[in-house]
Amino acid sequence: MTRLVEHAEKSPVQVDTTGEPIFVCRCGLTRNEKGLCDGSHQKAQDEKEGKLYCYDKQLNRKEIKGDEVKQCGCA
């Protein structure tokens, strides 16, 4: 089953519980299996407010309009 998950954040969040800060992904584009930031959020920096985008596995972005979300091919 494929899920469409909306992420609005464009930067990671810093977490420090052991004296060594880590950065957790909030954009949803990281390829890190533990969900840590890998800098992929840079691809989302120029997204326009109010627009919907999907990214393929190579992080190529496509703007989704209307009913295209069902066939975006980014899953």
TrEMBL record:
InterPro entries: MitoNEET_CISD (IPR042216). This is Iron-binding zinc finger CDGSH type domain-containing protein.
